[in-house]
Target: DUF4342 domain-containing protein
Amino acid sequence: MKYIRETIRRAEYRFDTTAARFARRHPCIALFCTFIGVPFLILGAVCVLASAVVCPIAWVNGWM
Model:
């Protein structure tokens, strides 16, 4: 358990430092990714996961 926790912390720290370095070097692209890219990514994930739940139900009930 301790090994897993440390591995996650290291990965999180590495991601944070990489994202901060990217934001310092490319502020316009980082701003675009933050306010345009992330919301579309979240909406896409919601759409895919909702479809993954609803499509089998619709198929079983004969609605497709």
